[in-house]
Amino acid sequence: MAKEINTIGVLTSGGDAPGMNAAIRAVVREAIAKGKKVKGIKRGYAGLLAEEIIDMDAHSVSDIISRGGTILQTARCYEFVEPAYQKQGAEICKKHGIDGLVVIGGDGSFKGAQKLAANGVNTIGLPGTIDLDISCTEYTIGFDTAVNTAMEAIDKVRDTSTSHERCSIIEVMGRGAGYIALWCGIANGAEDVLLPERYNYDEQALVNHIIEGRKKGKQHHIIINAEGIGHSTSMAKRIEAATGIETRATILGHMQRGGSPTCKDRVYASTMGALAVDLLCEGKTNRVVGYDHGEFIDFDIDEALAMKKDLDEYQVQICRDLGNS
Ligand code: ADP
Ligand code: F6P
Fold first, then answer.
1. pTM for the whole thing?
2. DSSP 257
């Protein structure tokens, strides 16, 4: 028989993402609705090791669903990769009566969750990252808000770029993953998109494309560059020198991680938060919640971490085709 869960802990770990608060709220309120106690762990695994643990009630999560960031704060805790600290983390959970834990974060955070599960704390992971780079799911908490923030910012840069007949390089977040770049590439109608997963370092082709566009009467040339490729400022200087067209670089940076979550992020994060609690109440552990083909489902964390994911090739192709007039 599955062990009964009495107290559920919740923490956020890794980079923050808009919608994390909606997920925390859902964990707290669903747990209370099921008669469980809830404890919030501050600052991810660093806060767990430091025993920064607070009691939470329904009121603790009032007025947060519309707020970006995470009320629990987040951190990167490098020592948590070591087995001794993972064991200590599990012991601290037990000491505070936490027998079920919801970890909201990315793949790195899931590895920590996996280790806590192995040390006897029933654990469920929720995919929280603006990067959309978690293989087992088509949706991650925060991506929708971040990509909309980036899209709106790029529209603004485009206005001034057209007025000045410039080339603009706009760098969006995504160190290893080009999802924000690709979606903005399509949504903003960019002339070129540089994706870490597909980059072939052919800057001359980029230069030729800009010159061709100008000959055809194009008033601007928008290049969306993913953070993983980076170097937008030096790239802008080289492109200006090679094309003779004024070129500016704009790095959107951390503004993409903040802001009030979209309706989709609020609703999906709320659903995932509630589902995590339901899974814990069913006695499940070492699971991660995902969204696939219109359904919220859960996977074994080990299997989820072993899955591979790549950009949709058709989207990559249409992004290129549609950006050429
Ligand atoms: P994300 O969760 O967004 O992928 P990170 O990769 O920075 O972000 O991981 C967040 C935290 O998860 C790390 O700071 C660390 O505390 C924990 N973590 C990462 N990798 C491991 C691992 N192999 N084992 C245990 N914990 C890990
Ligand atoms: O994983 C989310 C993310 O915003 C990435 O897109 C980016 O590469 C990274 O975090 C930036 O991390 P930091 O907050 O440490 O600058």
1. 0.97
2. G
Boundaries of domain holding 32 = 7-142+261-306
- 81: domain CATH number is 3.40.50.450
Number of folded domains that form the chain: 2
Same domain, 124 and 173: no
Nearest CA to ligand 1 atom 8: 14
The answer to whether residues 165 and 247 touch, using CB atoms and an 8 Å cutoff, is: no
Probe target for ligand 1 pocket from 20, 111, 116, 131, with the most ligand atoms within 8 Å of CB: 111
| CA-nearest residue, atom 6 of ligand 2 | 174
Give the Å distances, CA to CA, from 165 to 152, 217, 222, 241: 20, 10, 11, 16
User: Of 104, 103, 112, which Cα lies nearest the Cα of 129?
Assistant: 104
Whether residue 99 contacts residue 91, with contact meaning beta carbons closer than 8 Å, is answered with no
Residues 132 and 279 in one domain: yes
Residue type, 277: V
pLDDT per residue as tens digits for the range 259-284: 999 999 999 999 999 999 999 999 99
Query: Is 55 among the residues known to form the active site?
Result: no
Cβ 131 under 6 angstroms from ligand 2: yes
